[in-house]
Amino acid sequence: MQLTPDAIFEAAMNLPEGERLDLATRIMDTVSPEIMSADDPDFLAELERRFNDDSATIPWSEIRDRK
Question: What's the domain range around 11?
Answer without folding.
Answer: 5-65
